[in-house]
Fold these 3 entries.
Entry 1:
Amino acid sequence: MPRFITSPDGHKIAYNMLAGGPPTVIFFPGFFSNMEGTKATFLEQQCRGRGQAYIRFDYRGHGKSDGRFEDGTFSEWLADALLVLDETASAPVLAVGSSMGGFITLHCALARPDKIAGMIGIATSPDFTESIYRERMTEQQRQIMQALGYLEIPSEYQDEPVKITHKLIEDGKKHLLMNRDWIELDIPVSLIHGKKDADVPWQKSAELQEKIGREQCDLILIPDGEHRLSRPQDLDLIGQKVEEMSRVISII
């Protein structure tokens, strides 16, 4: 059964926590995803086997947390992530994020440098709201969203369509990072991306690596990997990287 923490504006944010040794691994799920996903539960099993602390959670409007998905914004989902990080995770933390969760992880690492000691991004989608609007929508779809306030887009991962709101796109403009010359992080960062990712091109991670700096960030490209990276071989690679970075953080 999940536990709940209440946000300042009254939303109940669901999370699961596994007690154990440092560093604490916390998993940040992706857009329209939740803490019951394959990668989130796989990493929990791995951490349990090592006796390592682990946390997974749902943003508002996702999974078992309060709220409707279409009411959420990036600002609110980031605030939920920081709330869970601040209230439940003991330092040092290894933050692992998938897709949008990788972008939220990046923001959390910048906001909490005293707590997050390492970061792993899986198919990270930096500036994802701009990517949706500029790269994934046609001009006709943009006009529909402007007129209705939202656009419904079919999802190959869920039975129901994803509702993209104009409010989400506008809010996302406050959190863009890829327009910076560099992104200053003083922690080890690893980016894992599939070269056959049809949702978030692997070049997004390559560009992010350049902005963080190769001395801080390594990039692992999986030649036949797609967006979800949930095949057994993908999970093994992710699990190996989490274990390796956990050892590095413990030594630092």
Entry 2:
Amino acid sequence: MFSALKPGLTLFAVSAIAALALSFTYMITEKPIEAQNAAAQERSRLELLPDADTFEEMDVTSARAVTSALKGKADGRTVGYVIGISVSGYGGVMDMLVGVDDGNAVTGVKIMNHSETPGLGANASQESFTDKYKGKTGPFTVTKSVASGENEIDAITSATITTTAVTDGVNAAVEFAAASARGDVGQ
């Protein structure tokens, strides 16, 4: 009878050891991963809003697609906002940070996390695409032909859904920044 249980017990023992090893590894790496993520967020904030020397967290409970917002300040005055956005792209949720200055112009877009198709929608995270928003105030629209207007964004070939998602997210960030500057939200 023991010979019939031996393969099951062996599998159980191997699984238990693997689970313990995995949980031990997680415990060891959890804090360094959190520190790396926090450092990446800080670098992105400073990259998106370089004029700010301090950041103040804002309330985002009523904002469309906005998951977080920081008011950037320098010498006590607001110089802009860094706004966290979460939108649905072709491959799933896309998380990004959008910088908007005090004149409501986009200072930059950084896609922090996405599951878009490599070589197609994933190209949305490249600077050659995200720089199309820089210096403009929106609202932005997506076009499948050559962009002719100031705020028209050329769709990435075969990735219109991704392009539209990023554009919707940038528009939501610009709207939030404008409303915050007016004192309507985020205070």
Entry 3:
Amino acid sequence: MTIPVLAFVGRSGCGKTTLLEKLLPLLTTRGYRIAMVKHTWHPDLETDVSGTDTRRFWNVGATQTILITPDRVVSTRRHEVEPQLETILTCVEDVDLILVEGFKSSNVPKVEVVRAAHNPERIPGLLHVVVLITDVLDLADEMPTFGFEDIPALADHIEQILLAR
């Protein structure tokens, strides 16, 4: 069975992370196991604390470091070129839904987030948009559209289109 995927896309600063911070706990309290995939354009992002063993291994050239604790596994891997989202998704398992922040050009269904205070226009040429989150009233069309505070209604919609059991 393929795990459903939904990407949240929009311009920087439009509120994608804040929206996902509200949506994620609501879906988990409804009994869903959620994986999160976050895309960033910042190379050499600090993902491990300086001085830790895994960071020391990374600093001396490990291609991959994996930290295993009683309650989590953390893996960091080097890539020559940025991997495609579809490649990363094959590594995710044992969840009901994968939520993605970013990857505008991917072929997965998308929630486009548009905030009037940042840029009140939709992203031109964006494909596979199934939901719009916005506070710009004249952007609403036949597509399901929700406001930034309509998190329960958004969760209901996600359940209907992706998580029907």
